[in-house]
User: Fold this.
Amino acid sequence: MADCLFCSIVAGDIPSTEVWSDDRCYAFRDVNPKAPVHVLVVPRSHHLNLAELATGDADLTVALMRGIAAVADAEGLAGSGYRVVFNTGRDGQQTVNHVHAHVMGNRAMRWPPG
Ligand code: AMP
Assistant:
């Protein structure tokens, strides 16, 4: 999609640090990390948010969830635990309108996040 930051990252037009990928999803380090490990996992195709993805493409939704688990394994978080966040819409403070999972760990995560 034109003018989508994460579509440009997936296409390689904007640089990123890859952590993991497959044919449907791409994972890269957040440029402004909020935890020692902070990775964003996105579908390669453009979908606004989790609700739109889940209602539009159930197989890709599962692929994204598996990507999250693969990232947690690759980053050594599976044993210690981690947090997965999908910021959605204005009140969720979603700033990039291409669905993305934040995978954060390597420290105890505060709850509630505020
Ligand atoms: P959200 O606020 O949930 O939409 O999250 C967007 C995330 O994208 C933020 O955590 C930003 O730090 C991150 N971000 C913005 N630009 C880039 C970039 N060029 N490379 C990696 N992460 C980015």
Summary: The mean pLDDT is 97.
